[in-house]
Amino acid sequence: MMAGRWKQQGGASLVEVLVAIAILMIAILAFIRLYPSGFLALKRAGQGESATRLAQQELERLKGRQDNLPYIIAPVKYEIVNGQTVLVIDPTTSPDDLGVQPNLPQGVPAEYASGVNRVRRIIGERVNLGAPAPYYGYRYNLTEGILHQTAFAPIAVPPVAGGPEWDPIQSGYLLVYGNPMRRFVMDSDFEYRWNLRTYEYGIDYERGKVLLRPLRYRPIAYKIDYSYRVLHEGHEDIRQVSTVIILPPTNPQRPFPLWVDLTIPVPGRDPSEYPPANEDPAFQGIVPDSDSAARLFERLASGAQWDPDYPYQYKVVNPLLGLLAFNPAGTGFYERYWRGQRPLIANIDYNVYDWSILREEHTVPSTGRIRLAFTDIKQYDDLLDNQTQYKGLGLPGIAQPNQPDIVLVDSLTGQFAYIQKGGLLPASTLSLGNFKVDYMAGVLELPNLRGRKLRILYKAHEKWALAVQKAAHRYFISHVLEGMPVDACWYDFEGAFEGEPVTKLYFNRSEAGKTVLLREYWYIATGDSQPRRGVNGVLRISDVPDGTGFVYADLNELHPNAVRWAPEVTGVAIRGVQGLSLKVRLYYEPEGRKVKIDFDALLTRKD
Question: How far apart (Å, rounded) are the C-alpha atoms in residues 29 and 35?
Fold first, then answer.
């Protein structure tokens, strides 16, 4: 009896246990497959929260450097000009156009001409020249300069062989220039100012000429922005131009001002070979008040010596990281202008290389541990969604095997570290000592860099990008609608003057959704024939164009009883149009979808 009872309590065999485990694993896997979207959603929610914090930090960072905000951030497109593929400003591109640029030239990767990369031309980023600091320059020799990191990086800059060089803005590269110059509207046939200074210029709108002053012992270059009218297919267009005019030294003669033709930049040519705008058969004159001029800074090779008597010089320390050095002589330097003296400042025009290269600024804490906003950082050789291998940040000028997947920049010294697969690449100038990188967690351990301020560049999976858009600091009133420049607006002056119901102020599609301030304006209201005056009116530009193909701000939003603009009071209906919008845009592509999240602020550069 006892023996039978023990027999009935016999255990399961090893085979039965293995079969049971296999069945259980199959059930668990089947359960997980039923809910992959739930796990993915949790992951994305975590990334979304981190991305939101990063965007808010970026917004606060830009608020903290309001003095340094650019004049405008403009859309661009690739074109073939003079046999070269160049980036040019494209006012017809809407900020919400995330598709690939139409008619993209062959050989240009679509990732640089789609999504948020359609809007990446930085114009007029201001630099207040502070105290000089040491940095590693030519052949890693310690040198001194006023260091500045551009607000956004990496930037696209061509290499420089040596000597001073001025790059035409139409080539899509770096340009550095000083304070705006004082303008005199003149007639080049009858007027001349022998005492014109280097902070002044004359312009003849009808003949397309400018009066500029040379130097005696060195060349001087000027950046001239202007718009000119042309007859095109039966109507008048406006073309916007940014050109460079170089005047040679006059020694042994004294430097007297010269009348020279305004030119049209041609990529691949020296500025002295640019064709004059007034030789265009369709030329109809310069648009009044569309012009501005500034003195260009000389760009020196990295090994060249600073001139202690000439502060208008700079060097590119690391173009990929947006790191520039200015002549130490610029510290505390005041230049003359028509109202006395003013501190020397620099303004920078450049293109952001790729908004999908994420950037963060951190001060290394006492623990030496930095947690990035994103997890799942792209590591060199990672498998991407399209089943190709990730080959680093794709920075130009660096061979494929040596492409970093993370870049660290010391904000004080300009030293940089290129990291690939958790190791330090030989091209680095910043020593990290013992360090670790956790790509999945987005964590850097840098115990030897405690207290150092770093800018960190990297990419995250799902093509996350952080971009910035900004309205123009000023919009000028264009005389025509078709072909007006990116920083222009237009209203039907003739229609308003003749009493037609005109209440719209038109802008290029590039300005869709932005907010503007009308400093002073006049309008006619219903039932009142007397013009009314308004000041500091805030209007939002429409997201979609009307039948004209342009977006607009409608006066009726401010004054529902407004009938039309009233230019008959002073000859113009609007004086002073200022852009107020600054937008930080998060963008990513989960499973091929394009998703954008915007963080808006009313923020403009301080004058």
Answer: 10
Cβ atoms within 10 Å of 335's Cβ, excluding its own: 18
pLDDT, mean of residues 491-510:
94
Please state, in angstroms and rounded to a whole number, the distance separating the CA atoms of residues 386 and 384: 5
Q: Are 529 and 523 in contact (CB under 8 A)?
A: no
pLDDT at 337: 83
Mean pLDDT of the chain: 86
β-strand partners of 326: 146, 314
Distance CA 299, CA 307 (A): 12
Q: What per-residue confidence (pLDDT) applies to 233?
A: 73
When pLDDT is averaged across residues 526-546 and rounded to a whole number, the result is: 94
Radius of gyration of the chain (CA): 29
User: In one letter, which amino acid is 110?
Assistant: A
The pLDDT of residue 317:
83
For 110, the 3-state DSSP assignment is helix
Q: What is the pLDDT of residue 31?
A: 53
Averaged pLDDT for residues 210-228: 93
Residue 277 has φ and ψ, to the nearest 5°, of -65, -35
417, 430 contact by CB (below 8 A): yes
Task: Tokens for 297, please give them.
Answer: 């800074």
CA dihedral 420, 425, 431, 434 (to 10 degrees): 50
Amino acid 171: pLDDT: 43
Q: Which residues contact 551 (CB under 8 A, 6 or more apart)?
A: 506, 507, 508, 509, 511, 512, 541, 542, 543, 544, 545
CB neighbour class for 317 (10 Å; exposed up to 12, middle 13-18, buried from 19) = buried
Please check whether residue 577 is in contact with residue 518, taking contact to mean a CB–CB distance below 8 angstroms: yes
d(CA 607, CA 604): 9
pTM for this entry:
0.86
Calpha distance 33→357 (Å, rounded): 33
pLDDT at 164 over 50: no
Q: Is the pLDDT of residue 555 over 70?
A: yes
Q: Write the CA distances from 401 to 381, 413, 420, 426, 460, integer angstroms.
A: 10, 27, 10, 12, 20
